[in-house]
Design goal:
The chain is mainly alpha-helical. 74% of the residues lie in helices and 0% in strands. The longest helix has 42 residues.
Length: 227
């Protein structure tokens, strides 16, 4: 009998999980046996990664997509309906959908073209357009520091080594102890995220600065109240 038909089934051991069918693995996962997810990952990770890589054309991006898919499976295990297909079919649907969305996201940000990558320089953005928006040099610098701190550790390290220390991507990879592809991914993804952060926060801070200026004018225009 399938474990899906027996919600009171006991927690399976690791050895039993490896022998279990996909439906039973999902039933165990829904019941709180997290080891079932590890078996599902072992069983299907290579397939999911290969499809994601075929679509996004980048190993680091494909790895990110793959991880997000299995996290989604973990969160939505209870929603699986065996009447609508197998676990493999469910995974493939997630994979194609997530990979295509990620591909579109990357294309919109010129991820696949060197010209586009050269144009994401957030430090140049901070030095020009932020001041045009009405921010002072100090305010623009503050926005850049906040943008940098919003990145994860790998992205911060890649930008520190390449942008600030002037290392090549090859030198940065050697110093960070990571692969060339990983460092390139962290560097360019970090720059893109910083540019997006700066574009949003710069506009918000510009409005705040404008409001402060208007407030100063209003206060200066107030007549002293007669007592």
């Amino acid at each position: 009998m399938s474990l899906l038909c027996d919600p009171g089934s006991p927690k399976l051991s690791w050895d039993d999980l490896q022998k279990a069918g996909d439906s039973d693995l999902l039933a165990q996962l829904t019941a709180g046996n997290d080891d079932a997810l590890a078996v599902i990952v072992d069983r299907y990770r290579r397939l999911v990664f290969s499809i994601a890589l075929r679509i996004v054309k980048n190993e680091c991006e494909a790895d990110d997509v793959t991880q997000s898919i299995f996290v989604e499976i973990y969160r939505k295990a209870a929603q699986f309906d065996s009447a609508r297909g197998t676990l493999k079919t469910w995974l493939l649907q997630f994979t194609y959908s997530r990979s295509i969305n990620q591909r579109r996201y990357l294309e919109q940000r010129h991820f696949y073209t060197n010209e586009g990558l050269a144009e994401v320089d957030p430090f140049h953005l901070a030095g020009s357009s932020l001041r045009i928006q009405g921010l002072s040099s100090d305010e623009a610098g503050h926005v850049v520091r906040r943008a940098l701190s919003s990145l994860n550790e790998q992205q911060q390290e890649a930008i520190e080594l390449i942008y600030f220390q002037g290392l090549t991507i090859e030198e940065a990879a050697a110093k960070a102890g990571e692969t060339l592809a990983a460092v390139r991914h962290h560097y360019y993804r970090g720059l893109v995220k910083m540019r997006e952060f700066i574009g949003t926060q710069g506009a918000e801070d510009s409005v705040k600065s404008s409001e402060k200026a208007e407030l100063r004018v209003e206060v200066a225009s107030l007549e002293p109240r007669r007592i």
